[in-house]
């Protein structure tokens, strides 16, 4: 699993340090930290959604076991500061990890002030690296990551662990075709937990994921109920977005929520990484969309088929599969857009987005403002013969002439499934050096 950059960042820490690792549920924070720790001296505690006293007692018990110090488990601690101070003293040097601190914060927020006291007054005098993590982003942003949080400026490292990009799926299912991997990516994105659960084929994986007790059946409820005490309004907004209502006014109309409330919900969901704004180039407009792959798949394909999955699993599975075929082309556009950002930013193409004018639309446009060049990519989730390729290219040039301002020199790329002139899924998975559609511009990609 490609986490070399994150491992290097953690390995660069030297004591005394305070580090924060955060990211969505299932993204691999615990595995990353376990790999980094290896055989180093460490106390690793997974927080519980419990009282302050329970967490203190359990952390003391865990430290007692890890350090071989029975006294730690017998002592009564009144604050996290006192407990961490004694652990650091007993360790001498080493690593302390409090995993999923968000659960502890939700159970009792005083843990934050006690943690701050330790970081401010005790940690600098120790030879310890303290790491806290959370996937409960709503409480963690307010308490630790927010600019107003006292802990925000104390961190030596703030590491946002993100899902893997599409090209890394080949490491998990090397025998699958690239198109099948992209379909799986449309379901669960690059979230390692789900990728590790994949079966021998896409069909078997979908059946397992959606079966009784399967990992995706109730995942939406788990994600939202962990973050929000009343997730109903958030769920309604996500459902509207998945159905194509992408402006605040539209979402307000379809959900019955007032526009101000919708705006606040969208801001919160955007902070959590569940929603994003898609930039429309050459305008001031932005369109909202579901960013989290699991939530997008759930609201796009599972929500409307839940009853059928319960009554007739086989038929429900067929309907979800049909819906997935509709969703995949959109995800393929996103993958192509990410590939363009990765490979063309080094050539000065710094602004990437969709472009729309009237009924005409360009899937991906990248702009080089300095050289006044525009790369326009038409994305097709289909096979194209040479003649079809030329027709698509000609039509893309026509649309570009209508949408892209004349000051830009336009270059066109086509993404499809088979033609050697196209950018294909297997090209995205492999080294970018293997696909150079333009000369001399592509040199150095």
Automatic annotation (TrEMBL):
Q: Name one GO molecular function term.
A: ATP binding
The DUF234 domain covers: 298-392
Q: What CDD domains is this protein classified in? A: HTH_ARSR (cd00090)
Mind listing the GO biological process terms from this record? regulation of DNA-templated transcription
Boundaries of every HTH iclR-type domain copy:
236-278
The family database entries (SUPFAM superfamilies) matched by this protein are listed as: P-loop containing nucleoside triphosphate hydrolases, Winged helix' DNA-binding domain
All residue ranges annotated as the ATPase domain in the record? 1-195
Name listed for the protein in its UniProt record: ATPase
């Amino acid at each position: 699993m490609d986490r070399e950059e994150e491992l290097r960042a953690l390995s660069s820490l030297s004591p005394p340090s305070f580090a924060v690792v955060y990211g969505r549920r299932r993204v691999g924070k615990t595995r990353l930290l376990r790999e980094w720790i290896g055989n180093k001296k460490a106390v690793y505690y997974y927080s519980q959604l419990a009282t302050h006293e329970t967490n203190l007692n359990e952390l003391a018990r865990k430290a007692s076991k890890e350090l071989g110090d029975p006294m730690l488990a017998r002592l009564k601690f009144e604050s996290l500061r006192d407990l961490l101070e004694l652990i650091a003293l007993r360790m001498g040097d080493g690593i302390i990890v409090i995993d999923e601190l968000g659960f502890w914060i939700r159970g009792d927020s005083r843990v934050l002030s006690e943690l701050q006291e330790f970081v401010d007054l005790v940690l600098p005098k120790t030879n310890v690296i303290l790491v806290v993590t959370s996937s409960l982003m709503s409480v963690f942003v307010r308490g630790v990551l927010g600019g107003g949080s006292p802990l925000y400026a104390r961190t030596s490292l703030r590491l946002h662990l993100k899902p893997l990009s599409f090209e890394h799926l080949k490491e998990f299912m090397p025998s699958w075709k690239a198109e099948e991997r992209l379909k799986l990516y449309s379901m669960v994105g690059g979230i390692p937990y789900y990728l590790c659960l994949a079966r021998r084929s896409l069909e078997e994986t979908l059946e397992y994921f959606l079966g009784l007790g399967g990992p995706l059946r109730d995942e939406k409820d788990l994600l939202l109920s962990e973050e929000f005490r009343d997730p109903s309004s958030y769920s309604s907004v996500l459902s509207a977005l998945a159905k194509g209502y992408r402006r605040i006014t539209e979402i307000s109309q379809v959900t019955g929520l007032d526009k101000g409330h919708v705006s606040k919900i969208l801001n919160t969901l955007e902070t959590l990484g569940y929603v994003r704004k898609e930039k429309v180039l050459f305008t001031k407009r932005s369109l909202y969309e579901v960013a989290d792959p699991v939530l997008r798949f759930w609201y796009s394909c599972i929500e409307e088929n839940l009853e059928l999955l319960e009554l007739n699993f086989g038929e429900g599975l067929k309907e979800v599969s049909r819906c997935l075929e509709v969703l995949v082309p959109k995800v393929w556009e996103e993958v192509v857009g990410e590939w363009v950002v990765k490979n063309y930013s080094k050539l000065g193409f710094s602004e990437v987005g969709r472009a729309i004018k009237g009924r005409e639309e360009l899937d991906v446009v990248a702009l080089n403002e300095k050289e006044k060049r525009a790369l326009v990519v038409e994305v097709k989730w289909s096979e194209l013969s040479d003649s079809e390729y030329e027709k698509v290219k000609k039509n893309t040039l026509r649309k570009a002439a209508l949408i892209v301002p004349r000051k830009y020199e336009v270059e066109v790329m086509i993404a499809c499934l088979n033609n050697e002139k196209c950018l294909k899924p297997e090209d995205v998975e492999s080294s970018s050096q293997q696909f150079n559609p333009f000369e001399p511009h592509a040199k150095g990609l």
